Amino acid sequence: MIKFLTFILFFTVLFANSEKTVDDKKNITADEIRDHIKFLSSDKLKGRRPGTRGSKQAIRYIEKEWKSSGVLPAGERGFKQSFIFTSGVSISGYNRLKIDELRKTFRVKQDFMPLGFSAVGLVKADVVFAGYGFSTEDSISWNDYSNIDANGKWVLIFRGSPDGSSPHSTFSDYAPLRKKYMAARDNSAAGVLFVNPFNDDELEKFVALRFGPSTTRGSIPAIHISQEVAQQLLPQNTSLKNLQNALDTNRASVSFDLNISVSATISLKIIKSRGTNVLGVVRGDGSTDEIIIIGAHMDHLGLGGEGSGSLRPDEEAIHNGADDNASGIAGLLEMAEKIAINSEQLKRDVLFIAFDAEEKGLLGSKYFVDNPNINLENVSAMINMDMVGRLKDSSLTVGGTGTSPMFEPLLDSLQNIHNLNISYSKEGFGPSDHSSFYIKDIPVLFFFTGTHEDYHKPSDDWEKINATGEKIILDLIYDVTKHLGFLDKKPVFTIAGPKERSQNQRGFKVTFGIVPSYSSGGPGLTIDGVRPEGPAEIAGIQSGDIIIEIGGKDVQDIYDYMHRLGDLKKGQRVAVTIKRGEDTLELVVNL
């Protein structure tokens, strides 16, 4: 009998906790915020890397919460909008390196490693030594190809520079692997054999396999070989270490034909993953077709590790991402619940989106704006919540306030009501999903409580969340949404800062004035947007064009584009070849 009563009591409590009253749903509570974050950032979800079991559990949790709140499905398949993206590369099949004259074969991972962007297939060719692989008549005036014929041959190249890997070196602009690879390609090489120098402990034994959404497979092979293998390519009585000493001491090219041939077979598999945005909508009163979008990204770094974005890449551990961005998803769930129960207070529909693959380069939000299931012209504003769980001293940062003239006066009128000290950042472009909407001329607001010592580390756990502080922020966002929802006209969009990552921070002397697609996998670089009256627009380049050559040199992806841009000078006129639909056009850009 006691067991039976205990059983009844358990289900009575469970039912009471799962069925919230209307009054409960009308209010955002710190306890519910905390409960959402505890689940989403639990070890069970293993860091919510896109496409993983933990990510799918997060998606099911969001769907369940929205269904119970009365939020309607707004995806292409229920609540879901799926997309495919490139997530990595792996060794696949047969990989071999052979010095033909010695009849000696070497093993992948032990003696050599292909680079992630290497071309695949079989290449047999003679080998030339090309020093550090520099090819420039610029400030350092060093051309390792001037005294050799690299056409159709492997080039053996040292990584780094005479100053090692120092970022302050005069050679730093010419030392990146991709820059050296492009120089070899421009000199018609058949492939590149990279070898580590002897004076740089910062360089790993073999370059880790990397291949991201912005990467394109190269047109020639790129292989990292051990110093032991490289030494066997040299003539007798020629020391690899002495060659490097000569380069470093004389600071001048040393290059020559090695009179030896290498055969290499490279087989790599590009890994594709599925991302899933989760979309739900609360309908307004039907008096307008306009829409307010509220978004937050749900993904994080999984188990961390090399190339994950973790600030502890050597520590493979669950990165729970409580603040980044379980806090934003908790806000999305609480906002959806409150708006759904108070929907009569809004003219406009409110579309809630949990974005996937933000940590991979804003891929989910980029996919949505490029493949919208709504008319983007009807979007009044986009509100983004990313890391809103660490409110301290009532200090909140709101970005994008310059994207509409009404935003700062509105926030001024609300911040004292909510006891917040708001710092404004006018720029519409930033490191989160609102950037994808700003590029499309949509007013954006980005709510953010700041970075902290646990950012992108395994220590970003729910215990450090200020749930009471997040409730204050969500109450503010609710009031902002309610105000936007009842406007007679949607907010006027204004340009607030560039629509691209700052090129000046990369040390570029010039800019094309384009918004490059950071998820464009090539071939070529797709243009997401063109700055009004910038060099590209004046030349006739349009959004959607694909750059395939700059100055007669090919552009395979965004990495090629950035390196080509780095070689250009202010005042220069450069021919740019683009693909526009089925047409190929050559335009001249005046920098």
Plain-language structure description:
The chain has 591 residues and is of the alpha/beta class. It folds into three domains: 2-85 and 273-485, 3-Layer(aba) Sandwich (Aminopeptidase), CATH 3.40.630.10; 94-266, 3-Layer(bba) Sandwich (Glucose Oxidase, domain 1); 504-590, Pdz3 Domain, CATH 2.30.42. It contains 14 helices and 25 strands. Strands 1, 2, 13, 14, 15, 16, 17, 18 and 19 form a nine-stranded mixed β-sheet that branches. An eight-stranded mixed β-sheet has the order 4-3-12-6-9-10-11-5. Strands 20, 21, 22, 23, 24 and 25 form a six-stranded antiparallel β-sheet that branches. Helix 8 (322-341) packs across helix 12. The radius of gyration is 28 Å and the shape is elongated. The model is unreliable at 1-18 (pLDDT under 50).
Question: Could you name the key traits of this structure?
Answer:
single chain, 591 residues, alpha/beta, Aminopeptidase, Glucose Oxidase, domain 1, Pdz3 Domain, eight-stranded mixed sheet, 14 helices, disordered N terminus
Spans of at least 5 consecutive residues with low confidence: 1-18
Helix content: 25-40%
Under the CATH scheme, which class of the largest domain? Alpha Beta
How many domains comprise the coordinates?
A: 3
Largest sheet: 9 strands, mixed
CATH superfamily of the largest domain: Zn peptidases
Mean pLDDT: 92
SS field, number of helical segments: 14
Q: Which architecture name of the largest domain does CATH use? A: 3-Layer(aba) Sandwich
Summary of the model, kept short:
This protein is of the alpha/beta class. It contains 14 helices and 25 strands.
